[in-house]
Structure formats: C-alpha cells, structure tokens
# Entry
Amino acid sequence: MYIEMGLVEYLEKTKSKEMPGGGSVVGYTGALGAALTMMVANLTYGKKSFESLDESIKNEVKKDYETMDSLIEELKKMVDADAKSFDGVLEAYKLPKETEEEKTFRKQKIQEGYKVAMDVPLKTCELIIDCMKNQRSFAKYGNIYAITDQGAGTLLLAASGEAVLLNVIINLSSIEEGAYKEEVKVKLEKYTNEIKELQKEMMDSCYNRLKEMK
# Structure
C-alpha cells in the first residue's frame, strides 16, 4: 500500500514507471494541507486569545478539528484507491474482441472501467473541498503566529483539488455521450468554481490577519 510507504520510497516510486499517479499523489498532498490546518489548531488551544472566546466558538473549532481529522483519514484511503482506479480500464482492453458479443462485452467493461477512473478522483476532490470549507474556523480564530500555515494548507488543498480534476478531464473524452457524462461535466464546473472561491476566501483571510501583525 502506497500510504504505508516512507516518504523517500514514495517519492522514488512516483518517479518510476510503477508510479502511483497524479491522483494518488494529490490525495496525499491534500491530506498534508489539511494536516497543516490541524497544526494551526494545536498551536491555538490553550492560548489566551483562544480561551477568551465564547464557549460556543471554542466548541465549533474543536468540532471542526475532529471533522478535519476524519477527512484526512478518508484522503489517506484515496492515495491507494486512485493508484488502482485505472486497473479496470487496462484489464478491459485486454478482453477478447473476435465476436460481436465479445466486442459488446469489452466495450461495456471499458466504459465501466473509465467510470471508476473518474469516480475516484471526483471523490478525492469532494473530500478536498470539504477540507477547505472546514478551514474557516481555523482561519478566523487560529493562532495568528501560525496563520501562514493555514495559508500554506489552503494552497496545498486548492492545488490538489484542481490537479485531481485533471484525471477526470482526460478520461471524460473516453466516456460515451449520455446522462453520466453530462453529470460529470456539471460536477467539474461546480468543483472548479468552489475551489477557486474557497481559495480566495481562505487566502484573503490569511493575508488580512497578517496585516494585523504590523
């Protein structure tokens, strides 16, 4: 399993022909972006500025912390899931195509394979977007001296989300016209816009808080 590899081993594997692939890599970079956000929280708890906040706000931050931790666990799963997501396509192309019946079956399996190859990165992107939404309380109430780590986490998440959608775009051309393809197109546009909007919101917050330090 790629997620169990050491950092250097994973890096070397990424360089090779046995690469895990971009979707797997961004599952991990997305998790790192979320982890940086959790670090901000851990550098916030116990500080006077945090402890002086209303109890409901403190509970909100702590709840978001737990949610982020759960999202990271899901992103860790996607590191391996994405690495295997194209296997179905490769196996389908190996199927016999001598008779019309074989051709029909092979075509069906190829389409099924491509759908998996797109559903996995779409799921990864959804998790990343959830992580970005979950950054709001940390961006607002996090330790100001660690707020650049929130910004770094935002940028990692945004880049990971946009990058994983490339896998969807490249495979979409292999999907037959129909309801499924149109549904994916709608998701692509929606997720792309959400990432851009959330990145702007979180980075504006980061830069504004940096100005407070002057």
Observations:
- The mean pLDDT is 95.
- The longest helix spans residues 100-134.
- The two ends are 47 Å apart (CA to CA).
- Residues 3 and 66 are 21 Å apart (CA to CA).
